[in-house]
Design goal:
The N and C termini lie far apart (37 Å). The protein has a four-stranded antiparallel beta sheet with strand order 1-29-28-27, with no helix packed on it. It has a four-stranded antiparallel beta sheet with strand order 2-3-4-5, with no helix packed on it. Strand 3 (53-57) and strand 4 (61-65) form a beta hairpin. It is built from one helix and 29 strands. Residues 2-26 have low confidence and may be disordered. The chain is mainly β. The protein has a single domain, classed as Methylamine Dehydrogenase, Chain H.
Length: 347
């Protein structure tokens, strides 16, 4: 919709997680602001490791840190100064892709750390509006967009984003009237296994789309501002078929409402369970840190769950649009309006 839009060794991970969880009575998670004040609304966030982090946002802005968020290199992409880059996918400190929503829709790529950008995809179709993209690995990726002529737009890449192939119209999922996706945090589509991705929709209809028949989600829906904004899959890095998933959303016009804003499934979406203590308002993004540790953020703050989404604790009232876990490390970052970037810490 146009209104919003670890890979580490098992032994090392278990040691780190043990330290993270081992003293919950004395240590609680918190949010440390790293930078703010830039005139951009950040919705794209890609965390490579504990040092390299990329962000993207409005006004053609891209940011990068190579020292764990201590300093940031801000850039405005030449020729795209008015573009809204709602999602970014980075592979290292030199290589990244950014997605400009529309119209027209663009995907650009850099291989020199953001010094120069090349247009690798352009779509001038009337009504085109990209919502999110994700990658299985450094070669295979997918991007999803709002419905065009009644069907969700999907395109694929198999060469690291250098070229893209639109899914034929007849093979695209059909959307109901008033159903679309939110370009809120770049996380309403995720890899599920080696050859499948799942995505969630919102609006007057909110559903989970897999290769099988769409599943109606129990989230609040029925209005343009309601439905699912984000889905997290554990563990898509193993690519062995995600059965544990969490969806969040709500009503972005009612930031404090906890009504039907989060559900989780342990059987691949066949059944859904509401949290005993839900997140404390509308949430635009959800992300697993580990099998049991999950974070979610939105307009009125950040929630943290240590029991796989059953109970959520409000740990910050700072507004954020997106939160992402490190691909190759243990860092966890958040980003939002006014160029605000933060990371998860233990107090």
């Amino acid at each position: 919709m146009k209104y919003l839009l670890k890979i580490i060794s098992p032994l090392l991970f278990s040691v780190l997680l043990s330290g993270f969880m081992g003293n919950q009575n004395h240590k609680q998670p918190g949010v440390e602001i790293l930078t703010s004040g830039t005139k951009t609304s950040i919705r794209g966030l890609s965390v490579i490791n504990d040092n390299v982090v990329w962000v993207s946002g409005s006004n053609g802005t891209v940011g990068k840190s190579i020292d764990g968020g201590k300093t940031w290199d801000w850039m405005r992409v030449t020729g795209f100064e008015k573009s809204d880059f709602r999602d970014i996918e980075a592979f290292d400190g030199a290589t990244a892709l950014i997605m400009a929503v529309g119209e027209p829709a663009y995907i650009l790529k850099t291989i020199d750390g953001g010094k120069t950008w090349k247009v690798v995809y352009e779509n001038k179709t009337k009504g085109m509006f990209l919502d999110a993209m994700d990658f299985w690995n450094e070669q295979a990726g997918i991007v999803i967009g709002d419905p065009v002529d009644g069907k969700f737009f999907i395109s694929r890449t198999f060469n690291g984003g250098d070229t893209w192939q639109d899914i034929p119209f007849e093979k695209r999922p059909a959307a109901d009237s008033g159903e679309a996706c939110f370009a809120a945090s770049g996380t309403n589509i995720r890899p599920l296994d080696r050859d499948e991705a799942v995505f969630v929709s919102g609006g007057t209809r909110s559903r989970l789309f897999t290769k099988n028949a769409p599943v109606v989600l129990p989230l609040i829906q029925g209005k343009e501002s309601t439905g699912a904004n984000s889905i997290a899959v554990w563990d898509n890095k193993k690519l062995n078929g995600g059965k544990k998933m969490i969806v969040v959303g709500g009503d972005f016009n009612n930031a404090d409402s906890e009504e039907k804003n989060c559900y989780y499934t342990n059987d691949g979406g066949k059944t859904w369970t509401a949290p005993e203590t839900p997140p404390h308002g509308y949430r635009s993004c959800v992300e697993y840190y580990s099998k049991n540790i999950v974070l979610s953020c939105g307009l009125n703050g950040v929630d943290y769950s240590s029991d796989a989404g059953k109970n959520w604790k409000w740990i910050s009232k700072q507004s954020f649009n997106v939160c992402r876990s490190s691909k190759l490390g243990t860092a966890f970052y958040l980003a939002g309006n006014n160029g605000t970037i933060a990371r998860l810490i233990m107090k």
